[in-house]
Structures are given as C-alpha cells and as structure tokens.
Amino acid sequence: MTTDPPESRYSADADLRRPRHFATGLVRALVAARLPASRLMVRDLRAQYRQSALGYLWMILPSVATTLAWMILNNASVINAGDTDMPYPIFVLIGTLLWQGFTDAMNTPLQKLTRSSNLVTKVNFPTEAIYLAGFGEVTINAFVRLLLLIPVFLFYGVAPTPWILLGPVGVLGILVFGYALGMLLTPIGMLYQDVGKAISVSLTFWFLITPVAYVTPDEGPAAAFQRFNPMSPLITTTRDWFSVGTDEVTGFVVVSIAAMIMLVAGLAFCRVSMPHLVDRLST
Predict the structure, then answer these.
(1) pLDDT 10s digits, 180-232
(2) Cα distances (Å, whole numbers) of residue 93 to 49, 74, 96
(3) What's the CA gap between 46 and 51, in Å, rounded?
(4) Most CB atoms closer than 10 Å: which of 158, 165, 171, 247?
(5) From the CB of residue 54, how many other CB atoms can be counted at a distance below 10 Å?
(6) φ, ψ for residue 248, nearest 5 deg
(7) Other beta carbons less than 10 A from residue 270's beta carbon
(8) CA 45, CA 42: separation in Å to the nearest integer?
(9) Contact, 174 vs 98, CB < 8 A?
(10) What are the tens digits of pLDDT across the range 97-149?
(11) Helix (H, G, I), strand (E, B) or coil at 32
C-alpha cells in the first residue's frame, strides 16, 4: 500500500501580500528554531571569555569603571548629577548596568548575523535561531550583571522595596527595545559597514543625553528634550523599581508597547530580506 507524497505549492507572489500566511510562517520558524537557538546560546556563552585572563569579570568591569568615573566627576563638582533619592553610587551603577544591557541588545543582532554569514550562505540554516540565541545571551548577561547590586546595597545599607519585583520587567523592556532597534538595522548593516559604525557613534551621543548618571531636570530645554527620548522613561522607571519604587509607569508602558511592535516588525523585515542578503553575500 503506497501513499501519495505531500503536495507543495510555490507561488511567485510575495509573502507580505498574504499577511496571515506570512505571520504563520514566522511563528512556525521561531518555534522550530528553539533547539538550535539554545545550542548556539550555550556555545557562545561558554566561548565568550574563554581566552581572557579575567574571564566573566569582563561582564561587569565596563559598568564598574563607568560608575567610578561618574562618581569622581560628581565628587569633584565637574558635573552636577542633581539630588538623588538614593546614594549616588547606587544611582549611577544601576543606570550604567541598564545602559550596558541596552547597548549589548542593540549591537547583538548585527554582530551575530555577521559572524554567522558563512553559515547562512552555505547551509540552509534558520536565521531565527541566531536571533533567538542572541537575545537569550543578552538577557542572561544583563541579569547576571545585576547581581552586583546585592553587595552594593548591603554596603550602603539600602533595603530594597517591594517594587524591586518589577525590576526584571523593566530590564526586559530595555532589552526588547534595544534588540528591536538592532533587528531593524541588521539587514542594512549586513550590506553596509557604515551602519555598525554609526550605531557605535550614536550610542555614545545617546548615552550622554540620557539620564543614566544624572537626574532628569524638571524644567527647561533639557526637560522638554527628555520627553522625546524613549530611553529616559525606561531607565528612570526601572532604576526606581530597583531602589526607591515608583508608580509613574505611563512613559515606560508606552515605549515598551512600541518596542514590542518594533520587534515584530524587525523579525518580519529580517525574514523578508534574508533571501536577498544571502544572494548578495554569496556573490
């Protein structure tokens, strides 16, 4: 007894002309990519600092160095960080840890796909696995860094409030926003190296205009400018959740919803552009 082979139909129409079919295919691809993504993530985490003498200490050293620099500048009155509701070292340390998570999230999609370009051009490999592995790696690194807050809180005698339970939600919001931006820029960055360099330059400028190491001003041009900075509510709300607590979440919710929409758009953009990227990179 024989059975007929499964029937496959191919069409010249673009997938985006059939949104439901495209969305279903994207979800199926993400589900199917879970296993290779987990293996890629474990491999990359193990190899991340393998040839380094300090090893995993490099996960926190950049944030610690940045925190010390801002503390020195503030104590020397070179800058005026403003009145904080917590000890300034804790204030700036939380801010720099959150910002490091954001920069890692924004840079990871392009970096991961660039390193795997030989794989995706020579093997029928699901690129969704690369994106999932990258986000998993960024998330683990971000939460491991936050463990540094435990001894710092104990040293300064700061007792966390129940709001700290919302801290992980804030971290995920920051990571999703950064990863969504990175996903949207990845296809263009694979074609033009200028994109990666532009990301590095823009992140430096963005850091200085975001209240990572200083209090958001209440009035003046700087205060008006911060209202249009999407990272401001993400950083300030999450930092307050980890320390003194806050119920001002409107800005955080708005930016987080926009980040989720951007992430879906970024996944769709990468999926649509991948065949064209493979063709360009192969030639």
Answers:
(1) 999 999 988 888 888 888 998 999 889 888 888 888 777 766 677 777 889 99
(2) 23, 13, 5
(3) 11
(4) 171
(5) 9
(6) -85, 95
(7) 22
(8) 5
(9) yes
(10) 999 999 999 999 998 888 877 777 776 777 888 889 899 999 998 998 898 89
(11) helix
pLDDT band at 8 (very low <50, low <70, confident <90, very high): very low
Place of tokens 């960080």: 81
pTM: 0.86
Up-side HSE of residue 146: CA atoms within 13 Å toward CB? 20
Which pair of structure tokens corresponds to residue 171? 């971290």
Tokens matching residue 158? 């700061």
Rg (CA), the chain: 21
CA 237 to the chain's CA centroid = 17
Count CA within 13 A, CB hemisphere, residue 256: 17
Q: What is the 3-state secondary structure (H, E, C) of 64-104?
A: HHHHHHHHHHHHCCCCCCCCCCCCHHHHHHHHHHHHHHHHH
Taken in order 39, 44, 50, 51, the sign of the CA dihedral is positive
The amino acid sitting at 142 is A
| Mean predicted confidence (pLDDT) in 246-254 | 88
CA distance 121 to 217: 50
